[in-house]
Amino acid sequence: MSARTRRIPHASAGKGTPTIAASKKRKAAESPAFQRTQTSHSKTGCVFRAARDYLASVYGEPAKKHPVAVRSKIVKAEPADNVVVKAEPADNVVVKAEPADNVVVKAEPADDDVLDAALNGGGCDLSAAPSSSAAAALQLEPVTVLDQLIRTMLSQNTTDATSIRAFRELKRRYPRWESVRTASAANVADAIRVGGLADVKAERIQVILNYLYETRGGELSLEYLHDEPDDEKIKAFLKQFKGVGPKTISCVLLFALRRADFPVDTHVWKISLALRWIPKSATREQAYDLLNSAIPDDIKFDLHVLLVEHGKNVAGNDPGAELRRIASH
What we know:
2 domains; two-stranded antiparallel ribbon; 4 strands; disordered N terminus; DNA_glycosylase; HhH-GPD domain-containing protein; HhH-GPD_domain; hydrolase activity; HhH_base_excis_C
């Protein structure tokens, strides 16, 4: 299997007309500080692996702390009403298809048995997550690509606790995305008010839903992105929507599409600066480019989740003496 189509690919640089932002990014990447850091990281991934192992010894294995990932498939329900679909594996969980939608979501186990950190990927507090049973995951947590995208959008510029409450309230009032699409913007904003910037976020969510409705024959789903092997095409597609930036896109790639990507949130950025994994002048976007090229694909999920958890548990995102010692080697 080629590197381009492997299950967890590392995205290659996209082609196209250079933009001012791209030129600035290239200039920063060519700076002496970035070159020195890149050279150091390219020699070995041992520092990152050692950091991952140390954090796992403190917080536990990330894979054991998250609900089982599922890939949802949209299938036509015949007849449209009163259809019951059983989710596997789940403790007799059933999902009823609403008559108006004529669709039902069938949940299937992830083919690679990767454990999902959807809420954590959006920046949530692990203590706020429900039990890891499949039933709880299906009933309460995001499992689809569209869920993950909107969940992460709601996590912007707010705390973990409030973004979780905003997402759950939105799903409680509007169990189907079609209902969110057709609701008034004011009502959608009211549902997510607790998360802040409600009017802006509601408008952006409805823009995405209306786009999908118009371009996908009424199917409000992004599950087809699972079949797109080129990460750069996925990034370009998602980037067109307002409110969907590099971190949000990276979370979708890592947590919903199970690709080898490394989101850089505030915790990851500040800890990486403190550990000198990136130059002092590195912005979050520059840190994203540098760390994604340096961190081995097979530990990106673990290291991201562990760094986020570590950042939430220490004052000022201080890595601590032991992690500094590991990073110095």
